[in-house]
Write a structure and sequence with these properties.
Elements lengths: L1 E4 L8 E4 L9 E10 L2 H8 L16 E5 L5 E5 L11 E5 L3 E2 L6 H21 L7 E5 L4 H12 L4 E6 L2 H7 L5 E4 L16 E4 L3 H12 L7 E5 L12 H5 L3 E5 L7 H16 L6 E6 L3 H4 L8 E6 L1
Parallel strand pairs: 8-9, 8-11, 9-10, 11-12, 12-13, 14-15
Antiparallel strand pairs: 1-2, 3-4, 3-6, 3-15, 4-5, 5-7
Helix pairs in contact: 2-3, 2-7
């Protein structure tokens, strides 16, 4: 089969021949229709992701949309190394997640991974309740935008978008109650008013270092659940002990390993339904898989997601 093949860490995948996977018991060979180039896909290919592996050559791709031999569409992920979804074929479990018959494979591939990110963080990790206030740190990317959508669907009374790009923030202005722009100084973090119940953090690094004391200083015993999801601005944050002593701060993470597979599988159908109905969505940038090496390094408009089509 043809596939995107990583032969050397730090180098873009190449469009090459790769052996077809051999389905194990309970699996079948399926035709991959579309697969998104998510941030985790990039990290996986570079060997930097905590859930990655070092077996080379390998095919990257953490999830995708495929068609069974009987024509049914499925959502698949968690393929066994060295196989991923950026390929013509995949070995899929026969119990893989079914999709609606009229689902758009490209839209599903673009939206499911980022859409599930915010949904799982809010519902499974933060335990968000209707009527709460949610702030999304990094609201202008694909995952951040779908997190805003998920917060609304789960009943948030107030949603705050935090990001750096003025134009990208203006794009989400109609979906949120307040906008806070990250600036080079430290004063930007003080723009947030009132208590916040949940922060979904897709950036970490310096912005989080600045925002943590600003928000914990306004809790007055009010519980603040901070969910760490992404590290777009850095992989570490210095944490002052007094911030923990002086506030009801609950600092947790959301990602592979923080929730059980059973919990994830129970929530995915709801995300699929919202995408199919247009309530959660990411605009795709479609690229042929044959152009993976060039597309890997191309800039992508804020809030959109590259989807490869074999």
């Amino acid at each position: 089969m043809k596939a995107a093949v990583v032969r050397q860490p730090g180098r873009p995948p190449e469009y090459r021949d790769f052996p077809d996977p051999s389905p194990a018991a309970g699996e079948e060979l399926v035709e991959v229709l579309a697969a998104g180039m998510h941030q985790i896909t990039r990290s996986q290919a570079s060997g930097e992701h905590y859930a990655g592996h070092d077996q080379l050559p390998m095919v990257p791709g953490v999830d995708g949309i495929a068609r069974r031999s009987d024509g049914r569409l499925i959502y698949l992920g968690g393929l066994k190394p060295p196989y991923g979804t950026l390929a013509e074929h995949a070995a899929a479990p026969r119990l893989a997640m079914p999709l609606p018959v009229d689902a758009d494979p490209v839209v599903m591939a673009a939206s499911l991974n980022p859409g599930a990110s915010g949904w799982m963080a809010l519902k499974l990790r933060a335990g968000m309740q209707p009527g709460q206030t949610v702030a999304v740190l990094g609201a202008t990317g694909a995952a951040g935008r779908t997190a805003v959508q998920a917060a609304r669907l789960l009943g948030a009374a107030r949603v705050i978008a935090i990001g750096r790009s003025v134009s990208a923030l203006s794009d989400v202005a109609g979906d949120v109650d307040d906008i806070v722009r990250i600036e080079d100084g430290t004063g930007w973090a003080d723009q947030l008013t009132g208590p916040v119940d949940v922060v979904l953090d897709y950036v970490w690094g310096r912005p989080t270092e600045q925002l943590l004391p600003a928000l914990t200083g306004k809790t007055d015993g009010h519980r603040l659940t901070w969910v760490q999801i992404g590290t777009m601005a850095g992989s570490s944050v210095p944490l002052r002990g007094d911030l923990l002593r002086s506030s009801d701060l609950h600092l947790i993470g959301s990602g592979l390993g923080s929730t059980s597979m059973r919990e994830l599988q129970a929530e995915i159908p709801a995300v699929i339904d919202h995408i199919a109905a247009g309530r959660i969505w990411v605009d795709p940038v479609v690229r042929p898989l044959a152009e993976v090496e060039r597309a890997w390094t191309e800039p992508v408009p804020s809030g959109r997601r590259v989807v490869f089509v074999p």
